[in-house]
Amino acid sequence: MNFTNNYEVALNGIKANKMRSSLTMLGIIIGVAAVIIMISVGQGASKRISDQISSMGSNLLMIYSGSSGGPMRGASGSVNSLTLDDAEAIGELDQVANSVPELSTSGNVQYGNQTWTSTVDGTTPEMQEIKQWTLSSGSYFSDEDVTNVSMVAVIGSTVAENLFSSGTDPVGQSITINKLTFKVVGVLNSKGAAMMGQDQDDIIYVPITTVQLRMVGSKYVRTINVQAASENSMSYVQSNVEELLRQRHRISDTEEDDFNVRNLTSVLEAMETATGTMTMLLASVAAVSLLVGGIGIMNIMLVSVTERTREIGLRMAVGATESNILNQFLVESLVLCLAGGVLGILTGVVGAKLISKFAGWNTYITMYSILLSAGFSAVIGVFFGYYPAKKAAGLDPIEALRFEK
């Protein structure tokens, strides 16, 4: 008996007990769907973290004023140690593509009768390259604006939406920030939320010298963003930066650094490892339901063998071999699992999309999760179907013909 005949016999057996077969497949359907949904949730979280860190810049080191427990960007810290000269010196190091200082403050922004509170970030034109910002209109300010302490501003889309009415082009308009008048020279395209949930579009970029001299009154900067020439040179650049700053700040070997260097690539790797572990944990929990479904398959197949004992004896009496009987019941088990697997895949894909839509969770469905679930369901069909099939193949034909239900 070839595979086609075994398939036809298996299909007829399933059709003869539709309700029982449907309930048997339900365990596989739920298990496969659960695995796909759990993996998609984990992959979605990982992708979101990766995208958010990437949106901060590629191959990026961030140097903060203060020691390793120092203040984050925009926060008020007790130690001011970084200067524009430090940023320029770092920019001359080998394998450094860009070195961009930042100094942020809070700003009360007004245009006409509209007011808004936003972050005002003093920086240099190279920030656009590091952050990979694109402009919806206008242009970024220039190095000349930094030198001349110009009163110009590039605003994020959130600021533009809250200050200007629909149809009004902000470029060329004058706004006041903390009672100082600035000319809007550009509007940034939206980038969405940052890694910690901050709105990256609720920001105003101005020349760093303007923030230092006219808004804050400080010669220091809070952060220096250092972009390495390549990902492979990150460790090399970080080591050189730390050595340079210790020399410039006259820090001895026994003293603690007055700066803190953070490698975003390392942060990304750590977070991806954490989300990968979470994904595997979720998938493992979901896989338990697949095992339960496999046990259900074994149970039903044992019942089927008992019910069809006379049929098995008759097949053997007319020439069916043990291999034929074994293959027949294995194929039936495999058909049940694969049918449940296909329905489970469809349910899982739809379920993941519904979770993304209604729960607001990021889900990311990969071919890996689909193939894994389909392969797992096939393995379960063979594994849990083998014992009942072996039992059927081992029946004595004479005893089987004598069997009565």
Can you characterise this structure?
- By secondary structure, the chain is α+β, with helices and mostly antiparallel strands.
- The chain folds into two domains: 3-52 and 269-402, no CATH class; 67-257, no CATH class.
- The protein contains 13 helices and twelve strands.
- The protein has helices at 3-16, 18-55, 84-91, 127-131, 143-147, 157-163, 208-216, 234-248, 264-307, 309-317, 322-359, 367-393, 397-402, and strands at 60-65, 82-83, 96-111, 114-123, 135-138, 152-155, 174-177, 180-188, 203-207, 220-221, 223-228, 259-263.
- Strands 3-4-9-6-8-7 form a six-stranded mixed barrel.
- Strand 7 and strand 8 form a beta hairpin.
- The longest helix is centred in the last third of the chain and has 44 residues, at 264-307.
- The model is unreliable at 69-78 (pLDDT under 50).
- It is found in: Cell membrane.
What Rg is obtained from the alpha carbons, in whole angstroms?
33 Å
Poorly predicted spans: 69-78
Q: Structural class, please?
A: alpha+beta
Please state how the strands of the largest beta sheet are arranged side by side. Answer: 3-4-9-6-8-7
Order of helices and strands: HHEEHEEHEHEHEEEHEEHEHHHHH
Major sheet description: 6 strands, mixed, barrel
Anisotropy-based shape? elongated
End-to-end CA span: 27 Å
Strand content: 15-25%
**How many H/I helices?**
13
The overall pLDDT, averaged over residues, is: 83
**What count of structural domains?**
2
Number of strands: 12
Helix content: 55-70%
